[in-house]
Amino acid sequence: MKLETIDISIFIIYILGILVLGLYASRFNSKTKKGYFLAGDKLPWWMIGGSIIAANISSHHLVGAMGVAYSRGFVAITLEWAAILIGFNALLWVFLPYYLRNGFYTIPEYLQVRYGSLTRAVYAILILFTYIFVEIGAVLFLGALSLYALFDIPIIYSILALATLTGVYTIIGGLRAVVWTEMVQLVVLVVGGVVLTFATINEAGGIQTVIDSTKDWKMIYPADDPDFPWTMYLGGLLCISVFYCATNQFIVQRILAAKNEWHGRMGVIFGNYLKFLVPLIITVPALVAPLFLPDLDKPDLLFATLVEQLLPKGLIGLVMAGLISAIMSHISGAINSCTTILTVDIYLEYFNKKASDSQAIRFGKRSGIVIIMLGIMSSVLLISYSDKPVFLYLMNLYGLFTPGIATMFIMGVFWKRTTTSGALAAGIITIPLSLLIEFLLPDMPFFNRTGIVFWTCMLVCFVVSLLTKPKPDVELKGLIWNKESLKLPESERHLYKGIRNPFYWWLFITIVVLFFYVRYF
């Protein structure tokens, strides 16, 4: 497809604008560890919630999730809305107080305080694999796939360009540059998504087609479904959601940078509202697109096809800027999380405990370059992947790495008898057990496989903990969930009065999501 001058202009202006904004933001608070890795602990609630969703929603949603919705229907949205009911609730009501009250830079720091340094290293290794192969590699590939389908740009060139542009301001500016650019990218993403949604609905016959499609909306599928069995709620989806939303440096780093607990909680809840709305913008076009695109061979190309066929000049540049927004915000967040973990949990812990702030930041920047290179390599490996929508492939990868991580956190925070040996056992068996089940039962839905591995990790952790010596109660003070955990800090109680109380805002969005689950059961 040949781009018009106006589309090219919009596209170039946007890319340059983001680059300039990221570099400008890097001027603030990037001279210290706290400034570089946590934006100086000064993020307000609206920036926290907005950046969480901007980092979360990426090309694997605009491209991958849209492809899943086209081929499988409304059930695709359950992977997003389940986060509101499961993962973000775990973060909001269980883990958030521990993270903020202990002043952690990274999520693995909780594991060290709870279990010891070895569990911290196991988490760091597992999470870095996840970020490189899923959060960076797959997102780069999916974005490049759309650019290739639309403009015939070689995939490898797009991968290199996207990785380089994003890496520049992320490595130079740290978390502050990431969050500032994410807020702009979220607006562009939403505007571009809304434009494409209305264009698709109009082509399909108007709003009545959406209303008519609701008769086929279904959120719970039979147990023998190959991708979305209802049994996924018993373990697989539970495990992935808790990991991704509540114990994932990529998401939680924004909470760690909150001004205080109230801003942290309101940020999560604001993120819930965006998490409800943005997937609708992505899913609805895919549900009505079959009315005029009934036989699309590759569902992952639906986004590119809609842009090419439906949008006039000018709007193409805007929507593609939305796609690039999604890619860049996601990659920048992943790179920043990787560099934070490598610096705080590996370099400062094992190689240079007395490093100055400038030494730590220098190491973080250098490690960021390595992470980008590894992400590019992993994205190249995906070029040959075409069996099913790539979004499902990403969930499959999450299922390989996450059961042990979720187990370490859940058992650690809810059961004081959990020992270091029990947590390590769960983390170590995760990948081998996942690969073994996939080899022996290749047709098993990955959600079921993940659930089996998750509950096996929980059982192993339980048994090993019973056979080993736990920490004394005095060393676990402030680390185990109890009613004291829900008490608000004295200095913040005045913030929770009346309409400012996060509970009311949380209750409303929770009821709305539950209504959809009941209505389209």
From TrEMBL:
InterPro entries: Na/Glc_symporter_sf (IPR038377), Na/solute_symporter (IPR001734). The keyword Membrane applies. The chain crosses the membrane at residues 6-25, 45-69, 81-100, 121-149, 155-179, 186-211, 231-252, 273-293, 315-348, 368-385, 391-415, 422-441, 447-467, 503-520. One of its GO terms (molecular function) is D-glucose:sodium symporter activity. It is found in: Membrane. Pfam families: SSF. It is a multi-pass membrane protein. GO terms for cellular component: plasma membrane. Keywords: Membrane, Transmembrane, Transmembrane helix. It comes from the Bacteria. Gene3D superfamilies: Sodium/glucose cotransporter (1.20.1730.10). The keyword Acyltransferase does not apply. Belongs to the sodium:solute symporter (SSF) (TC 2.A.21) family. This is Sodium transporter.
